[in-house]
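Weekly modeling sync, notes
Attendees: S.R. (lead), two postdocs, one rotation student

Agenda item 3: backlog of single-chain predictions. S.R. asked that every request posted to the team notebook include the full sequence so nobody has to chase files. The rotation student volunteered to paste the first one in as an example of the format we agreed on. Action items at the bottom.

Example entry:
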Amino acid sequence: MAERYIVSACLAGVKCRYDGGNCCSEEVMRWVRQGIAIPICPEQLGGLPTPRPCSEIVDGDGYDVLEGRARVCYCETGKDVTAEFIKGAQETLRLAQLVGATQAVLKQKSPSCGYGQIWCRGRLKEGNGVTAALLSKNGILVRTADES
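Predicted structure, as returned to the notebook:
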């Protein structure tokens, strides 16, 4: 059986980014066409609309959000959307486990999917997004894709 991946849906061409756009990766789109990658958008799975205001993690990273030490808020209004980000991460993990995915290729710098770097207070900082953190905690290898 071929390796299965979870991939950020925006990398597969789905218009699910906060601004209603996508950020296609030819490699990721090829994996989806081959049936080895399952596209997901944790923010949509958590119940957030598209388009939606941009979000950022406040006072930590995705691990801190999962432990209740940080929160996720809309950048402009400060509305707390932590519950939606956690729900989306949990649903993503559930899907990954359902299809037997052992790896995830996620969108860089996102408060959900970012791995290694995330946006915080208008600048990049080291850390992982909420979904990347939850997948990592559960033994799924997370990496980012080269974006086209």
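Discussion: group reviewed the output briefly. Strands lie at 5-8, 37-40, 55-58, 71-74, 103-106, 117-120, 123-126, 141-144.
Action items: rotation student to repeat for the remaining queue; S.R. to check formatting next week.
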